[in-house]
Amino acid sequence: MTIYKAVDGAAKTSGGSEESGLVSRNEAKVLIDLLRAKKEMQLAVAYNRMSPEEFLKALTQAEFWLVRGSVATNRNATVSILQTLSKDPEFSVRYAVSRHPKITEALLDELAGDSDYEVRRGVAQNVRVPERLLNRLARDSEAMVRYEVAKNQNASKATLTWLAEDPEPFVRYAVLTNYNTPQAIQDKLFVDEKDLIDDKDWRMRFAIAENKYTAKWVLNELANDKEMWVRYAVAENSNTDIKTLKTLAKDRDSGIRRAVVGNANVTEDILGILVSDAKPDVRASIATSHRTPLHILAKLSTDRDEMVRYEVAVNSGVNGTILEKLATDRAISVRYGVASNNNATVPTLQKLSSDKDWRVRYAVATNSSTPRYVLEKLAADSEDYVRKAASGKLDLSFVSHLRTNS
Predict the structure, then answer these.
(1) 158 within 8 A of 131, measured Cβ to Cβ
(2) How many CB atoms lie within 10 A of CB 189?
(3) Cα-based distances in Å from 290 to 75, 122, 212, 297, 307
(4) What is the pLDDT of residues 221-235, one digit of tens each?
(5) I want to staple 170 with a disulfide (CB 3.0 to 4.6 A). Which of 101, 203, 367, 392 is the partner?
(6) pLDDT tens digits, one per residue of 267-304
(7) Does residue 14 register a pLDDT over 50?
(8) What is residue 4's predicted lDDT score, i.e. its pLDDT?
C-alpha cells in the first residue's frame, strides 16, 4: 500500500474524528502534499526537530533515500518510525537508525544481524549498545565491525581481551587505545605509531588517523595519504593542527573538505576560503556550523543553492537581519527554515504567518518566539495542522499564565 492510499484510507475511516487518533481528510491532503513536495522541502521537514510525528512518518515513504535517512537522524523520530526505517532497502538509512539515540535494545538486536556490515558497524558504534551485543559483534566476520567494538567504551574487559588476539593488527591497535583495556594487555600491544604510518594496510593508517591522542606530526604526515578515508580521519581528528587543516581544505575530495569545516580547530580564514567552494555540500556544511561568523553566513544567505540558504536560515547563530532578508526567498524550504528559527524577529514572523505555503505558517505557529496575537491569527488558519499547532501553543501559554499568577 502506498502512503497516498494509506493516508486517504485513514481519512475515510476517521471521518475527521479526533477521538479515532487517525488523520482528518484535511490532514490527509496536507500529508500527501508533503510527499509531492520538492526533495529540498522534504529534506527541510525531515531535518527539522519541530516536525510532528505525522510529518516524519509520512516521509519514511519518500522516494529520495536521503530524505528517509534524514528522518532516521531526527531526534524526534519515534520508536515506531525507527522500526519502519530499520527495514529500509537503503543500507545508509538503516545505518542511521542503528546510531539513533532512541533506538531500543530489540532494534539493536535486529540490526546486529543485518546483511550489510556498515549497519552492524553502526550498532557497534552506538553508545547505548549493551555489552552482550558488543561481545557478539566482537566475533563478526567483518574486521571493521570488530574495530568499532574495540573502540566502544562500553566494551568489557573480557571482550577487549578477546579482541587483543584479533588477527587484524588495526583491530588490536584499537584495543590498545580503549581506556577500559587492562594495563597488562596495553603493555603487550604497545606499538610506536611512527613505525606504522607507512603500513601497507590502509585500515591501520586509518586507525592511527582516528586516534585523538596521535601526535600532530603523525597526523600531518597522514594528511597526504593516498587513501581517502585516512585523510578524512585526519580532517575529523580534534588533535589536527591548523596547518594540516589548511592543507586538507584543498583536498580533491569534497567529503574531506566538509570534515575540515566540522573540525573544532577550524579557523575563520579556512572557512573564508571554503565559502567559495565549487561543491554546494561544502558550502552547506559551513552554513550549518555554529562556528561560522555572521559575515560568512551573510554571504551564504545569497548562495545560488537552495539547501545552502536553508542551512543559513536554520543556523542558531544567524541574526534577525539575515533572517529578514531570507524571509522573502523564492524557495519554500528557506522561508520554512526562517519561520522555524527562534532568532527570527516578530515582524518577520508576522509576515511569514501570511505565507502562501501552509508549512511555513505551521513553522511560525510552532516557533517559541511567535507572539500571542500572531498565534491567535493562525488559530483560525485554513489548514488543520496550522490551527492545531497555534491553538496548542495558546493553551500552553494560558496554563503557564495561570500557574504564574496562582
Answers:
(1) no
(2) 16
(3) 18, 26, 22, 10, 17
(4) 999 999 999 999 999
(5) 203
(6) 999 999 999 999 999 999 999 999 999 999 999 999 99
(7) no
(8) 38
Longest dimension (CA), the chain: 72
Supply 349's cell numbers: 514572523
E-strand ranges in 296-344 read none
C-alpha distances (whole Å) from 200 to each of 51, 174, 197 are: 47, 17, 9
The model's pLDDT over 189-206, given as tens digits with 9 standing for 90+, comes to 888 777 788 889 999 999
Distance CA 326, CA 351 (A): 12
- d(C-alpha 39, C-alpha 131), whole Å: 39
Share of the chain above pLDDT 70, in %: 90
Nearest residue to 284 (alpha-carbon basis) of 266, 258, 263, 260: 258
The length of the chain is: 406
Residue 134: DSSP 8-state = H
The label of the residue with cell 585516512 reads 230
Phi–psi pair at 358, nearest 5 degrees: -65, -30
Per residue in 24-40, pLDDT (tens digit) is 566 667 678 778 888 99
User: Does 319 score more than 70 pLDDT?
Assistant: yes
Q: In one letter, which amino acid is 124?
A: A
What mean pLDDT, rounded, does the chain reach? 90
Closest CA to 375 of 352, 405, 356: 352
**Sign of CA pseudo-dihedral 37, 343, 72, 290:** positive
Ramachandran quadrant class, 40 (left: phi over 0; alpha: psi -120 to 50; beta: rest): alpha
**Cell matching residue 315:** 543556523
Name the CA dihedral angle for 373, 377, 383, 386, rounded to a multiple of 10 degrees: 0
Look at residue 54 and tell me whether its pLDDT is greater than 70.
yes
Identify the residue whose cell numbers are 529534506: 43
Say yes or no to pLDDT of 20 above 70: no
- Going by C-alpha positions, the residue among 350, 347, 357, 346 that lies closest to residue 386 is 357
* DSSP string computed for 28-91: HHHHHHHHTS-HHHHHHHHH-TT--HHHHHHHTT-SSHHHHHHHHH-TT--HHHHHHHTT-SSH
CA distances from 50 to 45, 55, 95, 314, 365 (A): 9, 10, 23, 12, 11
Counting DSSP H helices and E strands in the chain, the numbers are 29, 0
